[in-house]
């Protein structure tokens, strides 16, 4: 039991450290530089590619999908590291939700 | 005194006479110091006139015969053109069409047709392409001999693929003996229409005026008989310039009322039976609605059968907010359909199949097993083989070689005749489901549009809706494609009139947007409509001179730049290659972006006499700019707003 707790604790500490290491500003730079924004929009709002923000997919899902996409996206095999993807996801997580449709008069005409 | 001698054919006689006069004058001055000084000067371009020329122009007139013509052949050509009711002639001025040009503006009074000055032959043809899609009738485009035709060729291909009649006239000097210098030789051809032949319906090279008259009327008739296409007519330069022969009767051939081919009654009975008994029939339309009547008929048959319609938006075929509009829910409609009727569809195979990843992947049919596929298309009546615009073979169960718009009213009557009470009840129940689904689809589109609402660069959804917010109270016409802005106007605007949307580049060749928009706006002008072109930057840079044409001819047109500072699709495509080749993606802006420097479109517009503003990067600045743009259009002026946008 104790060892289980120890590993869980270790995992949480490592996870937190990884989370702290994520850099949204770098993620935004990478999102533009690696041409993600061309398809997904500069704020991940979607375009030719799927919407990624707000509420981006889980990191593990993103890391897996970017390497082995099943839709129209090209595979990013070695252009971005796992850490880069984590930064990109961190950036996408900072994108605020848009106003509700009911609060945008132009979308109700 | 020179004696005017009308109806004397032939340029050679004129040149001979002029040379003789010049020689006589020169002879009188030979030996004078001034004459010697002139003779010593090198004979080049813009130098002062030589002694011989001065003598000819200022000395006593020689008793020679100078040829003038009160009635050149081109006057008759204009008479024929006028008989066809052609409103406009778009051209860049051409030496091989100069006599026709002069006859148009003087003999013809520059009215019906009016000369529209273009800065590129590609623009002349694209302008005519856009004009047709609003006016429903062709206008003319004049092309100078070989080089003008080469400039125009891509635009002719676009019109050909877009089923847009354009009457192209091409200058040429066929008789080598009539060519006067090296440029005449460079710009002449033994078969000048050859360059356009594989993407025009018909061409001819008349050698007499009566031949021209017949061929011009024939060209008009052929271009307007489905399948609609551009045609080319060569205007031989000497034929234009020589006097009308005294014996020529000047007959103008009659343009007949043009009928459109329809399906035979037996076929209509069979198709109606299939549709009436189907559980989930659908229609797919690319260029079904040639005219407003086509739109009306498609609505009628869709409602009669409560059948979804997938509008592929090569024309305005079906109202955007109609509950049966499944244009942006196409996959589900196709996979559940048991009868699929394609009306003038561009690429039916792609509607019925999924291509999958990779070039070598086998396309997979997405239709239900046993689904019946029917095509109604005038394209079956005509095809050429060199260019592959006829698309992949679609495996139809029934191919009806007929004009869809003309056929639909007969199909409607036959469906009505076959409908029983039971089938009516089943169809009514089907309609209720569609009516329930439509608001949900619109709500979903609005939700998607809200993402990135305040982004900078500005989202294409925000741009579209800021425009619609002010246009919806006007009589508007969207005169360019929307595919590169995710079709937001077609997804979110209430588009219900035929002229409110006209599709885009038929052959997907760039250089279409600005001139085609000017042509469409020209056709909209007399109705007081506000024409709006949401214009991609890459396409714009092929033919920016169209803005000058709009300013010169006072064409009310609001151009809103979708300025993503790139050939964005190519950024994505080169990026895909880099990804698939396991190489850096961050270099794929090389050769694909329009930055360093950023292009200042408002300044470019201002330089051509079009009021412009921008670049706008804050979405809050859009509304006042659009208000100014609409006000300018209402004053009858063109206006440009440069908006820095997301990629798509």
Structure in words:
The complex is a heterodimer of chains A (109) and B (648). In chain A, helix 4 packs across helix 5 (82-94). Mean pLDDT of chain A is 86; it is low at 7-18. Chain A is 52% helix and 0% strand. Chain A is globular and about 45 Å long. In chain A, 36% of the residues are buried. By secondary structure, chain A is mainly α. Chain A contains 5 helices and no strands. The longest helix of chain A has 20 residues, at 2-21. Chain B is an alpha/beta fold and 648 residues long. Chain B has 4 domains: 3-66, no CATH class; 73-241, Thiamin diphosphate (ThDP)-binding fold, Pyr/PP domains (Rossmann fold), CATH 3.40.50.970; 265-436, TPP-binding domain (Rossmann fold), CATH 3.40.50.1220; 451-644, Thiamin diphosphate (ThDP)-binding fold, Pyr/PP domains (Rossmann fold, 3-Layer(aba) Sandwich), CATH 3.40.50.970. Chain B is globular. The model of chain B is unreliable at 1-45 (pLDDT under 50). The interface between A and B is large, with 32 and 42 residues.
Which spans of chain A of ≥5 residues are poorly predicted at pLDDT below 50? Answer: 7-18
Class from secondary-structure proportions of chain B: alpha/beta
- The oligomeric state of the chains shown is heterodimer
What's the CATH topology label of the largest domain in chain B? Answer: Rossmann fold
Specify the overall morphology of chain A: globular
CATH architecture of the domain at 23-96 in chain A: Orthogonal Bundle
Classify the beta-strand content of chain B into a percent band.
Answer: 5-15%
Query: What gap, in angstroms, lies between the N and C termini of chain B?
Result: 71 Å
Mean pLDDT of chain B: 92
CATH class of the domain at 23-96 in chain A: Mainly Alpha
Helical run tally of chain A: 5
| Cα gyration radius of chain A (Å) | 17 Å
Instruction: Give the helix proportion of chain A (percent range).
Output: 40-55%
**Biggest beta sheet attributes of chain A:** none
> Which class do the helix and strand fractions of chain A yield?
mainly alpha
| CATH H level, superfamily name of the largest domain in chain B | Thiamin diphosphate (ThDP)-binding fold, Pyr/PP domains
What is the number of helices of chain B?
A: 24
Count the beta strands of chain A: 0
Quickly count the domains of chain B. Answer: 4
